[in-house]
């Protein structure tokens, strides 16, 4: 079955406290409340600053929804005063129940704090000490309260290899203090790799990859959640105790400087404090200290963030998982912009998956901003600075574990916690497995039941099928490792002889607001095909009806597409404007039956008004788009590259359309009564794609007018919340490499199958590009219909006489439910940007009301029926609804504002946002700077940054940020930061900001071997060897020496010299030097020398010969006697030579069977269920050196493994699939078999 996190329980996600709500008394605690809200009430909740989307509120779900919020009693009262009914909830008060956990905490069986004895910090130290061959613990910095922030490094010879030498993978957790399940997953990952360090596969990975685990980013806040009370009354307690701090989220910064850390107004959200897009707006983070997403007083203000920042610079991880809870999501970059992922998105998707086929089942992989927009976020910051491919897994909720109450209070149950770790382990293993080849990731396991990493798209052209002009940009996202990218193109058709071009692509540098973040492994490149494809003397220019075939080539690969020339500019002396007729008259809303007209109703009126203003005008009809290269109607939405890019401005209007919906929609949306809407909230995909293309056009200097009485319905909300959605949804295209069964047959429970889910339509494009933060009135109301419309202040339409808007129902296409009877509704005016409680935007984005209804009394809320930004003007009515003279006046004023004819001689406006003038910055810290720059015509070309007159970098996209690391020589000096803002006309604004670089103590780092030590002396018994230290980096406080014989320590041999003994004869002798300081230790070992015997001395001279003694006398010979009897047989003489080999004799009898050693066998199933480790130990009467050999296999398996050894042997058996139950193992020793039940 399909399971989605947001539908798992009626009690969904915990909301954050409001920046707009008063914090209340300082000792008030966050408490859980439940609320059932309508869409309007959800807007009130969101207006108060609560993270609505993280609460599980789904904009596309109609009717009431149940939410849980965490606020203080004071804040709850403020919400209830606005009509939001709250029901107080209680935190569970469980006693400690033994579930198999090993927590040292007296109140929990599984969970443990960071700093308590035996807590996470002690555990990291103990694990590193017990695994010195592959692990070391590193302090990356200290928290605000001085607690060490510890990470553990796991790699072969970890202590003696410089950090960051090998490709690194970083697993981090607990930016947010209350997310305990995140800490558990991270700490268990470290333990898993250490427990499996001798597994052949893991051991190989540890030789090439550094694994870093940072279980607790925010130790102050995390420890605080294990306590009750405030200030001096803080004490360790269980979650249900009075004044519990269990739901605390932030750091413990003392925002109000009252000397108490952790009262109601304190803390900074460390996941909003990094410099990336910091303080861009008040949606992605809050400026209010009491808010749960308070971004801090300045970027990197928190010591935890500064420490992590330096840590990233040191290890530069290739991959990063930053664990959070609770939502069951896999979020990828970016979080700061909606529906615009990074250029490495194909890689991110290959690793994380998609709906139905996710790397963690049943999590939802998505771009991070789909949850909510964030600025200063951890994963985005690592990507922007170091190209780290990162993900934010939002882990399970309490509800998915069968618990009620706050989603963050995960059950204290070992089985349930273990289950969350287990299902997240495979993604972690895939990242580690791919660290040496991050752009072509691969699976750790080939088990088909597990998620399989998908292929990536090496060449991704940005395709379009029609072009409206001469010079034509061609773009593609291409794998960097493929090398240079070439684009070949051939034009043919009625314009003349075919001609071809071959051009080398160059990197895209970004637009005015986004696009300046290059991909790490994929890059966005462009070429511009010329207007003249031949010579000046014999030009060949694109002509209507020509087709262009494009091929993008790189690394021996290619991708093709073709487009047709639909139009070209005729008069280059005039500004060229495109009218997009998005009337959707072939669609189904509000008419219910496809097709309420056969042609655009209002296109000509728009064209005539623009021509009257002196512009060259072209059109694009979304219901009858131009023919493509195949000679059939092309895609329904105009594209940025093929269409919009050829125009100075665009007029995009929607006529009588309510919501763009497909002709095949079975339940179209319409007005069932004068005020009630009914029907599907799914928007046609072409309309959403066109909206994104229009944003790309605006990002690169385009200007646009948007008009239509319902033009803002689809993409703007009635809520005044900055985080609101429009209540509509859309379906994105299928992703490359995934299996989508027919008829939406993909399922979370069918491995390897994907399906398409609807995505919520965000209001950010309306909000930040068109200035429409909300809307009121409009279709289904008559609130403003009788009022005249007139100019606001001294703006664009100053002096225009008030005019009326035709709101009569007339030929409105709304019908009855059957779609057979016309039921026209009033064509009501919509007020835009009714944001009375919202602060000003950044100047580049700042909107202004230009026209408004003139009512008595006057409208109290900000906004109007026409709103402008520096690049756009939006009308809350259709230009066809006013008379011709008024229409021509409005069009002329609007486009003359967007397309001024006078020369631009005004320089941009700008100043440093940070750092403050003469700020003191530590010599080991970066200088982070941002310039708030804008141009009166909205066209800043670039910002250039200098330090002491030297150009450091150039930035194309707002916000204009840069970073500089001071040199050691600059400590104690003043640096002059300079920024130059240049607009497209070449006007330059220069600003300067002095900063002081002050001496800063460096973090102590553990020693590292500089060079290998060496031995001097003769390796013979009786001789002395001396070890010569090769040196250590990082100022060791002490060194010790150990002499080794065959790798084993020689007792008592701890001096720099060692005299070899007879016991060393024939052995390999070496020396190990260990260097230590307060941060840790490292060691280095010499090459070994084999020891030989002492040689005998040289032979001495021969001594003199001794004297010869005298000879004795010879006796006389006696007579011969008689022959005696025959004597006894004499002794046998010496053996004669061996004779030839005789024939083989018969086979002898079989000898007796030898004894099989007695053994004890134990087998343990690994935590991941994929391996079993059996230990075979010789027992009495066998000795500890008894030779053992035999075979082992999992009962029922075909594969048998042979083993041998002495005394005690370990055998590891692998399973191709995860074993849910511990199996039996058959061990054979000699001729004896034993069957052993493995233990879990």
UniProtKB/TrEMBL annotation:
Keyword flag GTP-binding: no
GO biological process, alphabetically ordered: carbohydrate metabolic process; proteolysis
Domain Peptidase M14: 110-428
Catalytic residues as annotated in Swiss-Prot or TrEMBL: 394 (proton donor/acceptor)
UniProt-listed SMART domains: Zn_pept
MF (Gene Ontology): metallocarboxypeptidase activity; zinc ion binding
Segments for region (Disordered): 259-300, 1094-1160
Name recorded for this polypeptide: Collagen triple helix repeat protein
Alphabetical UniProt keywords: Collagen, Hydrolase, Metalloprotease, Protease, Signal, Zinc
Compositional bias per record (Low complexity), positions renumbered to this chain: 1111-1146
Cofactor: Zn(2+)
Signal sequence range: 1-22
Claim: Transmembrane is one of the keywords in the record: no
InterPro entries: Carboxypeptidase_T, Collagen, Ig-like_fold, Peptidase_M14
GO cellular component: extracellular space
Family the entry assigns: Belongs to the peptidase M14 family.
Pfam families reported in the protein's UniProt record: Big_7, Collagen, Peptidase_M14
């Amino acid at each position: 079955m399909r399971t989605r996190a947001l539908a798992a329980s009626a009690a969904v996600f915990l909301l954050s406290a409001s920046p707009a709500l008063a914090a209340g008394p300082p000792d008030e605690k966050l408490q859980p409340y439940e609320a059932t809200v309508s869409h309007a009430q959800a807007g009130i909740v969101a207006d108060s600053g609560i993270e609505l989307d993280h609460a599980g509120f789904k904009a596309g779900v109609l009717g009431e929804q149940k939410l849980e919020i965490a606020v203080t009693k004071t804040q709850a009262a403020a919400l209830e005063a606005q009509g939001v009914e709250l029901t107080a909830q209680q935190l569970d008060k469980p006693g400690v129940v033994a579930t198999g956990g090993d927590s040292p905490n007296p109140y929990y069986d599984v969970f443990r704090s960071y700093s308590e004895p035996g807590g996470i910090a002690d555990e990291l130290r103990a694990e590193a000490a017990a695994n010195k061959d592959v692990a070391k613990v590193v302090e990356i910095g200290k928290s605000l309260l001085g607690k060490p922030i510890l990470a553990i490094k796991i790699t072969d010879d970890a202590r003696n290899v410089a950090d960051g030498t090998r490709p690194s993978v970083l697993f981090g957790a607990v930016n947010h203090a209350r997310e305990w399940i995140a800490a558990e997953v991270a700490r268990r990952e470290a333990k898993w790799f250490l427990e499996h360090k001798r597994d052949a596969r893991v051991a190989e990975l540890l030789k090439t990859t550094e694994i870093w685990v940072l279980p607790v980013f925010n130790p102050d806040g995390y420890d605080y959640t294990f306590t009750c009370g405030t200030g001096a009354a803080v004490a360790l307690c269980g979650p249900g105790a009075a004044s519990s701090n269990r739901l605390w989220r932030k750091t413990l910064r003392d925002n109000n400087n009252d000397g108490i850390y952790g009262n109601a107004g304190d803390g900074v959200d460390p996941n909003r404090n990094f410099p990336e897009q910091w303080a861009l707006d008040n949606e992605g983070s809050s400026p209010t200290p009491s808010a749960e997403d308070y971004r801090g007083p300045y970027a990197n203000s928190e010591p935890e963030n500064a420490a992590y920042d330096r840590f990233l610079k040191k290890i530069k991880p290739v991959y990063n998982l930053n664990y959070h809870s609770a939502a069951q999501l896999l979020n990828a970059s970016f979080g700061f912009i909606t529906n615009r992922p990074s250029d490495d998105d194909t890689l991110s998707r290959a690793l994380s998956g998609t709906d139905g086929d996710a790397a963690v089942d049943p999590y939802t992989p998505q771009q991070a901003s789909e949850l909510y927009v964030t600025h200063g976020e951890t994963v985005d910051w690592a990507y922007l600075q170091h190209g780290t491919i990162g993900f934010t897994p939002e882990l399970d909720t309490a509800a998915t574990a069968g618990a009620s109450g706050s989603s963050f209070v995960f059950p204290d149950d070992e089985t349930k916690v273990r289950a969350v770790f287990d299902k997240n382990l495979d993604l972690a293993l895939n990242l580690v497995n791919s660290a040496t080849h991050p752009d072509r990731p691969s699976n750790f396991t080939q088990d088909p039941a597990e998620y399989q990493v998908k292929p990536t798209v090496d060449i991704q052209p940005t395709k379009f099928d029609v072009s409206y002009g001469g010079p034509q940009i061609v773009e593609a996202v291409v794998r960097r490792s493929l090398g240079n990218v070439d684009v070949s193109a051939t034009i043919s058709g009625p314009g003349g002889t075919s001609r071809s071009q071959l051009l080398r692509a160059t990197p895209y540098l970004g637009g005015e607001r986004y696009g300046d973040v290059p991909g790490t492994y994929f890059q966005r490149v462009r070429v511009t095909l010329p207007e003249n494809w031949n010579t000046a003397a014999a030009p060949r220019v694109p002509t209507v009806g020509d087709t262009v075939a494009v091929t993008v080539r790189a690394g021996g690969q290619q991708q093709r597409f073709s487009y047709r020339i639909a139009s070209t500019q005729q008069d280059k002396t005039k500004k060229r404007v495109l009218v997009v007729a998005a009337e959707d008259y072939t669609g189904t809303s509000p008419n219910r039956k496809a097709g309420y007209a056969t042609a655009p109703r209002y296109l000509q009126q728009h064209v005539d008004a623009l021509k009257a203003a002196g512009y060259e005008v072209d059109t694009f009809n979304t219901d009858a788009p131009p023919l493509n290269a195949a000679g059939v109607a092309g895609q329904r939405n105009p594209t940025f590259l093929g269409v919009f890019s050829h125009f100075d401005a665009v007029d995009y209007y929607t006529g009588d359309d309510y919501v763009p919906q497909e002709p095949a929609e079975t339940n179209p949306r319409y007005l069932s009564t004068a005020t009630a809407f009914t029907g599907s909230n799914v928007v046609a995909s072409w309309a959403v794609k066109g909206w994104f293309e229009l944003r790309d056009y605006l990002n690169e200097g385009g200007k646009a007018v948007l008009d239509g009485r319902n033009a803002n319905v689809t993409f703007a909300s009635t809520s005044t919340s900055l985080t609101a959605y429009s209540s509509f949804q859309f379906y994105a295209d299928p992703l490359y490499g995934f299996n989508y069964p027919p008829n939406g047959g993909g399922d979370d429970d069918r491995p390897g199958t994907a399906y398409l889910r609807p995505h919520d339509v965000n209001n950010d494009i309306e909000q930040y590009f068109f200035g429409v933060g909300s809307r009121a009135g409009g279709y289904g109301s008559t609130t403003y219909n009788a009022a005249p419309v007139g100019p606001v202040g001294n703006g664009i339409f100053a002096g225009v006489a008030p005019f009326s808007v035709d709101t009569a129902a007339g030929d409105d296409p709304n019908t009855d439910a059957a779609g057979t009877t016309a039921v026209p509704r009033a064509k009501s005016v919509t007020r835009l940007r009714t944001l009375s409680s919202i602060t000003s935007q950044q100047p580049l984005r700042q909107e202004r009301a230009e026209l408004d209804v003139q009512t008595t009394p006057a409208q109290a809320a900000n906004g109007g029926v026409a709103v402008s930004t520096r690049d756009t003007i939006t009308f809350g009515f259709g230009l066809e609804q006013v008379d011709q003279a008024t229409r021509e006046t409005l069009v002329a004023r609007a486009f003359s504002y967007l397309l001024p004819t006078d020369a631009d001689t005004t320089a941009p406006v700008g100043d440093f946002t940070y750092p403050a003038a003469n700020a003191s910055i530590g010599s080991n810290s970066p200088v982070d700077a941002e310039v708030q720059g804008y141009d009166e015509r909205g066209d800043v070309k670039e910002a250039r940054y200098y330090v002491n007159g030297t150009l450091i970098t150039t930035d194309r996209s707002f916000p204009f940020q840069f970073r500089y690391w001071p040199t050691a020589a600059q400590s104690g000096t003043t640096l002059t930061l300079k920024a130059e803002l240049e607009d497209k006309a070449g006007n330059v604004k220069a600003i300067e900001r002095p900063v002081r670089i002050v001496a800063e103590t460096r973090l102590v780092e553990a020693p590292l071997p500089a060079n290998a030590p060496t031995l001097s002396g003769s390796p013979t018994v009786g001789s002395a060897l001396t070890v010569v230290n090769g040196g250590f980096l990082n100022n060791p406080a002490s060194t010790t020496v150990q002499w080794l014989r065959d790798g084993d320590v020689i007792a008592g041999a701890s001096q720099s010299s060692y005299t070899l003994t007879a016991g060393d004869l024939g052995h390999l002798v070496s020396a190990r030097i260990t260097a230590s300081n307060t941060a840790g230790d490292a060691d280095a070992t010499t090459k070994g020398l084999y020891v030989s015997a002492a040689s005998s001395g040289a032979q001495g001279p021969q001594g003199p010969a001794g004297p010869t003694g005298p000879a004795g006398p010879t006796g006389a010979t006696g007579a011969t006697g008689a022959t005696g009897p025959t004597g006894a047989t004499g002794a046998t003489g010496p053996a004669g030579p061996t004779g030839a080999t005789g024939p083989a004799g018969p086979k002898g009898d079989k000898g007796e069977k030898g004894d099989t050693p007695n053994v004890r066998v134990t087998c343990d199933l690994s935590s991941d269920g994929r391996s079993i480790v059996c230990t075979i130990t010789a027992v009495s009467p066998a000795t500890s050196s008894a030779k053992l050999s035999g075979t082992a296999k999992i009962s029922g398996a075909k594969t048998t493994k042979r083993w041998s050894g002495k005394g005690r042997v370990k055998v590891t058996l692998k399973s191709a699939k995860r074993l849910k139950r511990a199996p039996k193992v058959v061990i054979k020793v000699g001729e004896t078999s034993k069957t052993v039940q493995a233990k879990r």
